[in-house]
Design goal:
heterodimer, A: mainly alpha, Arc Repressor Mutant, subunit A, 2 domains, 10 helices, 69% helix, B: alpha+beta, seven-stranded antiparallel sheet, two-stranded antiparallel sheet
Chain lengths: 194, 269
Amino acid sequence: MTDRKKEEIDKRKQFEVEALPHMDALYRTALRMTKNEKDAEDLVQEAFVKAYRFWDKFEPGSNCRAWLFKIMTNIFINDYRSKSRSPMAVNVDDIDDNFLYGQLAVGGKEENPEQDLFNKIFDDDVKKAIENLPDDFRLVVMLSFLEGFSYQEIAEIADLQLGTVKSRLHRGRKLLQKELYDYAIKNGYVKDNV
Amino acid sequence: MINCHQALSLLQDILDKEASEIDEKEVRAHLERCSECFGKFKLEESIHAFLKEKVKVVNEDIKTSPKLESLKSNILTKLDDIDKEDGSSNTGFFKNPTRLVISVAALIVLIGIAVFSAAFYKHQEYYIAIEKAHWSVDSKPELKLVSSSPDDICSQIYSTYNFNLAEENSGYKLVSTHKETLQDVEFEHLIYTNEDEDYISVLITDAGDFELPPDIIDKAQTINNREIYDHNCRGCRLIFQKIGSLMVITASTNSQFDLMSFDPLAQSI
């Protein structure tokens, strides 16, 4: 066997052991980001193809999962994200930081007013609320909530400043809360106090 | 002791477990004194826990999705293709006209026509692509110029960075400087970026012996003693400027950015 051939087999083996097990995680984030299975599959495939081609650039011992997410995020931002790129169109600043606190505190005298609301929110409501977040916010929320990446890791994955990660996460969180609260009111789970 | 405002400003860090031990201690001490903040924190903590849990739950079904198996086998097939491509110069390789040209050139090199071989290598060296070379969690991504095929210049610039035509070209700042060697000439490589994550790459040398091959020049002009050469490739632009012994190469991920306006002798971009 030639050295070249052997090198290739080693590379392949290494890739399958180190990178491939992260496929599930990449896929679920891809699915939430693209909002459809076909695009999610394409995105994950593209990410792995690119990762494999650039495998020699991966530093052994560094965080492979973050590296793969970075590659996938790049592809998503460039090729998949909705063309109408207007995260700022959503006026998050209108939402008071203590929005939900105000709503719930007025509502009832119970010990844990929020529990009542939580019990009535369906998984599908949450799914919809996540998908309604603007791309930029959804990305950081998914990376933080679902994948458990730190601020620093998210900054590197999404090529953002640390402060931008924090503010997007903050706004994403507020939007998610407002979105869910609006569902709850629309469906009559809670009474609107405003 | 911290006040309510300071405590609330640390709320998110605490929820995300990013606050320092000292900050967290301060905040907890504040919460014991302040029932208003205590209420807010308690509510936010339970909402956070709820949302985090829900986000996990709603994504749980993906784990058992039959899609994953087919996705995995598709990926493995793609990897096989890449292995084959790398392993031998198969027929698919020649379907790409650029590769065909390069391969023909390579063949000529092989049969030893020295003039051609020199031209070929020289040619290759001038094609510059931007890519992230080293990446690790502990360090900011580094950018590196590498020799590549002409098609790669664009595809890599396009695919590596967020790229938006409509955005304004203001607010660039220097993010990295390092040495880069192109055709045995050492360049200082400066990388600028703005808030929109557009990148401008600038390579400067005053070695004076860096020469451009005429066949990559689309347009040549002289403005104020600056010899300016354009190289275009699918909408992507590289500008070579020669001022005495100085050679400056600029490229940007933002096609709206006027590279011609970049005066290498000015202090900042």
